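Worked example 4.2. Below are the chains of a multi-component assembly; read each line carefully before continuing.
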Amino acid sequence: MRIKIINPNTTLSMTAKIGAAARAVAGPGTEVLAVSPASGPATIEGHYDEAMACLGLLEEVRKGESEGVDAYVIACFGDPGLDAAREIARGPVLGVAEAAMRSASYLATGFSVVTTLQRTVVIAEHLVDKYGVRGQCRRVRACELPVAALEDDGAAAYQTILAECQRALAEDGCGAIVLGCAGMADLCERLQAALGVPVIDGVVAATATAEALLRAGLRTSKRGDYAPPRPKAYKGLVCPFAPG
Amino acid sequence: MRIKIINPNTTLSMTAKIGAAARAVAGPGTEVLAVSPASGPATIEGHYDEAMACLGLLEEVRKGESEGVDAYVIACFGDPGLDAAREIARGPVLGVAEAAMRSASYLATGFSVVTTLQRTVVIAEHLVDKYGVRGQCRRVRACELPVAALEDDGAAAYQTILAECQRALAEDGCGAIVLGCAGMADLCERLQAALGVPVIDGVVAATATAEALLRAGLRTSKRGDYAPPRPKAYKGLVCPFAPG
Amino acid sequence: MRIKIINPNTTLSMTAKIGAAARAVAGPGTEVLAVSPASGPATIEGHYDEAMACLGLLEEVRKGESEGVDAYVIACFGDPGLDAAREIARGPVLGVAEAAMRSASYLATGFSVVTTLQRTVVIAEHLVDKYGVRGQCRRVRACELPVAALEDDGAAAYQTILAECQRALAEDGCGAIVLGCAGMADLCERLQAALGVPVIDGVVAATATAEALLRAGLRTSKRGDYAPPRPKAYKGLVCPFAPG
Amino acid sequence: MRIKIINPNTTLSMTAKIGAAARAVAGPGTEVLAVSPASGPATIEGHYDEAMACLGLLEEVRKGESEGVDAYVIACFGDPGLDAAREIARGPVLGVAEAAMRSASYLATGFSVVTTLQRTVVIAEHLVDKYGVRGQCRRVRACELPVAALEDDGAAAYQTILAECQRALAEDGCGAIVLGCAGMADLCERLQAALGVPVIDGVVAATATAEALLRAGLRTSKRGDYAPPRPKAYKGLVCPFAPG
Amino acid sequence: MRIKIINPNTTLSMTAKIGAAARAVAGPGTEVLAVSPASGPATIEGHYDEAMACLGLLEEVRKGESEGVDAYVIACFGDPGLDAAREIARGPVLGVAEAAMRSASYLATGFSVVTTLQRTVVIAEHLVDKYGVRGQCRRVRACELPVAALEDDGAAAYQTILAECQRALAEDGCGAIVLGCAGMADLCERLQAALGVPVIDGVVAATATAEALLRAGLRTSKRGDYAPPRPKAYKGLVCPFAPG
Amino acid sequence: MRIKIINPNTTLSMTAKIGAAARAVAGPGTEVLAVSPASGPATIEGHYDEAMACLGLLEEVRKGESEGVDAYVIACFGDPGLDAAREIARGPVLGVAEAAMRSASYLATGFSVVTTLQRTVVIAEHLVDKYGVRGQCRRVRACELPVAALEDDGAAAYQTILAECQRALAEDGCGAIVLGCAGMADLCERLQAALGVPVIDGVVAATATAEALLRAGLRTSKRGDYAPPRPKAYKGLVCPFAPG
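Applying the procedure described above to all six chains together yields the following structure tokens:
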């Protein structure tokens, strides 16, 4: 099977890390494609960045449909464009926040999220509500690291994140940690070893879950709001992306 | 004061109707600009259309900031791009669904939403949860009218919508109707007269509320996640829209 | 249009302040009546005071109906008698807590309420649930000021409230402040200037929103539980207030 | 022990029925006082009636404190004035809706409420939320009986209520019925015999629960918002009821 | 009437204390049986202990049905086996957590729970949600006392619990305390005297409430999921417990 | 890896079907053990059956720990004993209801559950709340088939279930079906083909998800309430199952 990981952040070093994490968890017969769109923000750190990332991200899903892609992972913790992507994909589409938070729910009765900037905390909290894990999510914590800092100085970033995870375990009454940025994928294993509790990276969780859904013969429902978009004219810059 | 109504549907006859509804409610000193973006879907009828509408819509907000616009209304019942728009606007930005549902809450302990296609019902229901009106919203009803039908044959559309509103009053235990599409703005007054209960059109509600917020001296908070986007590079098609 | 602001606290200096705040926000063609009922507590600081305030408050609504009043504002943060008032009014009736909290929701993804006494915090929290803003309201904070202190020594009160607002911004992750007492109406502008975030006073928010609803042609629904009370006999002291 | 049942409806035949129901359930050493206030609506069928009932009702609590009353029951399904009454009572104060709905929760995983007029359904639904029984309450049903009809023609009322209860059992998936008006107290036993499921009358449930709390040595907390009202001046008609 | 208190902890000194507390609250005509099952954990301190306690506990209910028992109390704060017990009992079955938390809701708008070990906090929090008291329960607090410590050194345990209750009152904004372990039943009265707020022990609350329900003529609904279990074969160790 | 599927129903033909479904979805390197406990009900159709199933079920987990089992699936839609099992297992433990409902959430914005007997509907609804999928679960439907009927006459059962699924799609506004009994595992593929929407069987979903978690290097958290049970004495029949 072929799973396409789309990192809507257009920082390619981050995409490479994400691809490596996905490949490490994928089963033997699974091909992992890890890409960044041709269009989009270098990093995604707010509502505006998210909205602007959708065009490129959705184009990668559209291309995937003719590349024989079986499932997609959107590798940004705000899960931008998720519902839209499901309209145009036949196979499952998973967001990394959704997959990480649901996976954590199998492993502990409470988890905390450790993310990058404070301003993205609200985005994660809205997803906590959307995905119905308010009862499990003890707290969403920021460590005031810009996404780019994860690329620039991984070692410093690791120490900052580790410290925040330790505070989470000490103060939040949680039994697991969810990493709140796809760019932390390469730190997951070390953090889990250091902390002694499950540390869930969404890229890994989403890739493994996408495989699981495919193996179970499950695809996106085409009955209801995930049916293909109604054909219509689009105008201006988005004209080439009109549903046919 | 200057209020810009952005209809992210790029069907100009719809924009004209919306502008007329907004102007009719605006106070004497208020200038209403009603526009459709240069880029976007002819009509918005699903998650994908919404995502694709954001780019043009946000560009209109960005332009508005240099046009002396004091407040914005996003005239599509899914409230696409609302949080993103608030990051780049100084003044208030209102979605029509948000304004309509909150306005209805002042007038009745229960309202029903009457919208276009069944596939958009989920979008409205998610907004019901987001805006905390689950206790007031008795039901979201579709009348299986495509958005374009509101333009093509207004008379037929009126009858279909009226019938659905009557079913809502008979079956849902509601005391008010919220119109679930900005393209119904021109039908609001007639429906209210025919039904004898408050009928709330979001364009009217949002325009009037935006004026109210401005008169109260209130602007979008720039502390937290509505602070201006962090400056960064954007790539490809969205490159011109990078936050400066 | 004519809007009647009813301050159920029978402290007239407070009513004067409230009237001034309402007049400052009202549009040119709007007449603001600001009154305290003939009957009621000097200040409202608990469930009992609220219940005892209703009789006088509702009588002011009843009189308003024959005075050509178009809309009403109940100027006490517990929104006492709100549903009852809507039964006997044709036009919109707004509570200041309701209007303030809903207005704040347009401006920030999170707000905190700063109110007077700790014992009224529960009242505000119940309204947070009733109005569906649990997801936006980060915290309700008391500064242990009796309502009368707002009249007696405004300068000291201002400092106390300012300090609590600053704690809210520092600790609660909120982007806006809602003032939890109508008697703080005169401090709103100074607080907003000092804090640099939206500070929402309910008197201002409710007056402006009432005007907006009127301009939008919206009135209280008379279908359902806001229909006029059923005619019946009342006994004893309340006999003169029986619905006719 | 001495329990005072206050029927805020000032229809004395109803108070007599309520008193009989309370006495039938009370233990041997318990004295039941059943009264209607000197002031208030003949029947309570809406928000306005409720608000107007509070003055008389609270006066009965105030008098009770000097009559050696140990606990109070507010015998109207909207539980008017409940929080206010708790401020001025030392012993427990129970509303019949609260007691009925909580008692039902011990006996079935789902119950339906059968009440009088459709316009009071919203009042009951708000209490369902306030008391946290949304998960248990399958539906609130009206049988369009005015409260007075329960007094005027008990036999006809019985048949109407029975039929609605049967519909509830057939359609709602409930295992118990809560009677939504204190004036139905005399029908409870017959309905339970006819229906074969628990039928909970609030007067009976509240009286029995009040006794239980007293026997357990429990009183209203005087820490927090149920502390006695702060002393202050009251003006006009309510002047005699000012907290001392 | 005959009420059977089943302490699923098989520590008999604890059962004796529990029986004494129940007898002290029971009315004159009420016989209290206090037992521990023949089978089960010495103390219950987690999900596994709870699951393992059910067999013995349910057997005591089954025996009760032929002993003329009118109502049951499950005396362990996790309310293990409650729904199952209701299937096989004719009379009411009450859990101590359920009864304590609902009783507290009549007395204060907020309570905190003080329980034994941190690992049982999640169990109590799940019950807070199940019983719909999330709005009332300010916090669940552990004092890191194993259940056995309540038996071994009551004086030390008392001091530890008292201190935690005091912290709850100081920090949680609560007006009442719920004791989170049936083994604290003997400390309730002293704690209440020391703290000056209602302190609710579940054994006392459940016994008194069971009596109240019986006096009100109420039994477990046999319509729906509390109907007797369907007859069927059981295998192995549980074979003797198959529903007949 | 080695995954143990425990069917707590002790009907071996059902266990065989469940094992086949699990093996069909498992990856090449995965060994599936499918067992029924030595002790337990022939079928599980209520709270009592569930409680009585736990002993045997948990013993199978305990044995699994010394058999090198990496993950467990509890193959009964009520997810009995799930939290208890997680205390004694090192690897992930998944309930079929949990896995099915979470998997459905990736594929459609709304699903309906089709289960066996009406009396088990409440059990499923409680899980809907526990797992936070109230927003996705449109309805839980029973088709009044006893579990044994799935074994006795599969063809008739298929028709009954198919008809109920068709009603769900026609009436509930759902885009996917969750099968509400592990004994329906063999019908899943045919139903999905017939209905044209995702049909999720929990055995398949849980087995695939368990593999995914293992491949992602995730295990049950041992910090908090899933830590191993505290060592203590057990009495009577459960004595051999005491935590060591």
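Take a moment to check your reading of the output against the notes. Chain F has a mean pLDDT of 97. The longest strand of chain F covers residues 137-142.
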